[in-house]
Write a structure and sequence with these properties.
It is an enzyme of class 2 (transferase). By secondary structure, the chain is mainly alpha-helical. The protein is about 35% helix and about 5% strand. Strands 1-2 form a two-stranded antiparallel ribbon.
């Protein structure tokens, strides 16, 4: 896990981040993205692990046979390099996220649950790895969807019993990356008043982005 400095120059003081902060690539102003980099930006527990698996499967589909696919034995977090940049001063939607940006794709969890084949095709397009007509006829998209399905993932031994050292030396069970895989679970955690207040905040913060709920 990496950190990014705020406007006051202060960084997180959590001890597990000390080693990562020594890396020059994680220091503010020193990370230079490449033209073919893909950045996945989500809030926690919003399908992040699922999307990482889909992105890996799509972009590497010509390299791995499904019968021997890395996702069958490795957790999605281990196949997709990532940096987490926690900082409350960062605006969730800065200029680069504004409406009509062809390099930004908004994927909604509800839409993915409703028509995953359609969303996988959209994801493949923006990743620069669109499915060919032949692949579509051969059900390649369906295979990616099956491989990355919630039921398939949670049933794999690596995800149900595996443990990884992902956060500064603290063991983390792979199963914690998976919740219920259902739409509308928020009703078990928020009352109507809380939900209405959250909707108002989200509407205000996402104004002009093209992202709606």
């Amino acid at each position: 896990m990496a950190t990014i400095h705020g406007e006051d120059g202060k960084a997180s003081s959590r001890p597990e981040e000390e080693e990562v902060k020594k890396s020059p690539r994680t220091k503010k102003g020193e990370f230079v993205p490449r033209a073919d980099d893909a950045i996945l930006a989500t809030f926690p527990k919003c399908g992040t692990t699922w999307l990482k698996a889909l992105a890996f499967s799509i972009t590497n589909r010509s390299r791995h046979m499904l019968a021997h696919h890395p996702l069958l034995t490795r957790h999605p977090q281990d196949t997709v390099p990532f940096l987490e940049l926690p900082n409350r001063q960062i605006q969730p939607l800065a200029y680069g996220w504004k409406l009509n940006n062809a390099k930004v794709l908004f994927l909604g969890y509800e839409e993915m649950m409703s028509d995953l084949v359609k969303e996988v095709k959209r994801l493949a397009e923006i990743l620069g790895a669109p499915f060919t007509n032949t692949e579509e006829r051969d059900a390649a998209i369906d295979e990616v969807v099956r491989l990355c399905s919630f039921e398939h993932f949670t049933g794999l031994e690596v995800n149900s019993t595996g443990v990884a050292d992902r956060i500064g030396g603290f063991p983390m069970e792979n199963s914690t990356c998976f919740r219920r895989g259902k739409v509308g679970d928020w009703v078990n955690h928020l009352n109507p008043e809380m939900a209405q207040q959250l909707d108002s905040i989200v509407k205000e913060k996402l104004k002009g982005s093209g992202l709606t709920f």
